[in-house]
Design brief:
Layout lengths: L1 E5 L4 E7 L5 E8 L3 H11 L4 E5 L4 H11 L3 E5 L4 H12 L21 H20 L1
Parallel strand pairs: 1-4, 4-5
Antiparallel strand pairs: 1-2, 2-3
Length: 134
């Protein structure tokens, strides 16, 4: 299992995927609960790697993670992930009502998309592994 985290000051996006790419856990959590969430997820899943976005609080988050778990930490470029996450949000949640009338590129999702950023980070990591194998 691979866990990905989009670190932030107040909230983090977290996702856990299995070896075939199926999402087993995906949430936006308060940053203050990150350690306890990692410990809980370790009880339920055998976490091999933790993918961490290189953004806002990545250094302090990496330190916290390394003090919490033995899983290997990999840092991934976070560039443009918020924009990709907004697009992914609308792909997963088709606009309803008046929102159908506006292009989704002009809309902001009504909920935080940090968990979708984490999903994008893990996909980037897996894609980089595929590229390395070629």
């Amino acid at each position: 299992m691979i866990m990905a985290i989009d670190p932030g000051r107040d909230k983090c996006g977290v996702v856990v995927i299995d070896e075939v790419g199926e999402i087993k856990f995906q949430r936006v959590i308060e940053t203050s609960t990150l350690e306890s969430v990692i410990l809980e997820l370790e009880k339920n899943f055998e976490l091999k790697k933790i993918i961490l976005g290189d953004g806002t609080t990545s250094k302090s988050t990496a330190k916290k993670i390394s003090e919490t778990t033995k899983a290997e930490i990999k840092i991934v470029d976070e560039k443009h992930t918020t924009e990709e996450a907004r697009k992914l949000y609308w792909e997963k949640n088709s606009p309803k009502g008046w929102r159908k009338l506006l292009p989704t590129s002009m809309q902001v999702p009504p909920v935080p998309v940090d968990d979708l950023v984490a999903e994008i980070l893990v996909k980037r990591f897996l894609k980089s592994l595929e590229s390395d194998e070629r």
